[in-house]
Amino acid sequence: YAEKRFNNRVRVLLALIFVLGKSLHAGLVVYGGALALSIATNIALPWVILMVGLTAIVYTCVGGLKAVIWTDVLQLFVLSGAIILMLVFAVSELRGGLGEAVRLSAENGKFNFVGDRLSVTARLTLPGVLVGAFAAWLSQKGVDQVNTQLYLAGKSAKQARHSLLLAPLISIIV
């Protein structure tokens, strides 16, 4: 579309930006996991990066999309479990417990996420947040190659639709 709407140079530029963004994302994901593993195992970071990258390449090539999807499922449970454990640990360490933390937060306006007024000068307003969140969701879930690939992997249009509708709920959990 970009080539028809503008010209070939714009299409190439957009493709380069997309590839750069995905490359940076993949690099950060591998680096983050490798850094944690390197610290936990005391193995040099470059070797762990190599091991993590090769492992991902091998299981993707051998297991295909099914392996990638099951890794996403496992990641959902690991991240959700870690969040729950972190919250339980944090609440158990609070002086005064959860009730005191909620009381102090409310007193200091920490639950006023979006503001209670409509204003063009306010930093956050409910309509602005809703429009921005919808645009971000649409760009990620509607046109991103990684997400589109997962929808196309569904056995039917109904299964792809189901996946698309569940994505925001799972994103909120994680």
Brief sketch in words of this structure:
The protein is an all-alpha fold and 174 residues long. The chain is 80% helix and 0% strand. The model has no long low-confidence stretch (mean pLDDT 83).
Task: Please characterize this protein's 3D structure.
It contains seven helices and no strands. The protein has 174 residues and is mainly α. The protein is extended. The two termini are 33 Å apart. The mean pLDDT is 83.
Describe the SSE topology.
Blueprint: H1 2-5, H2 8-41, H3 45-92, H4 97-107, H5 126-143, H6 145-152, H7 157-173
**Would you tell me the structural class of the helices and strands?**
mainly alpha
So what's the overall shape? extended
* Distance, first to last CA: 33 Å
Q: What is the CA-based Rg, rounded?
A: 21 Å
> Number of helix segments?
7
Instruction: Give the percentage of residues in beta strands.
Output: under 5%
Number of strands: 0
Main pleated sheet: none
Low-confidence stretches: none
Helix content: over 70%
Helix-strand topology string: HHHHHHH
Label this structure with key terms.
single chain, 7 helices, 174 residues
